[in-house]
Amino acid sequence: MRDYRIAVFASGSGSNFMAIMDAIKQGNLDVTISLLVCDRPDAPVVEKAKQAGVPVFVFRPKDYASREAYEEEIVHQLMKHQVDLIVLAGYMRLITDKLVKPFYGKIINVHPSLLPAFPGKNAVQQALAYGVKITGVTVHLVDGGLDSGPVIAQKIVEIQDTDTEETVLARIHEAEHQLYPQVIDWFSKGQIRLADRHVRIEAPNPS
Question: Domains of the chain (ranges plus CATH)?
Answer without folding.
Answer: 1-103 (3.40.50.170), 110-207 (3.40.50.170)
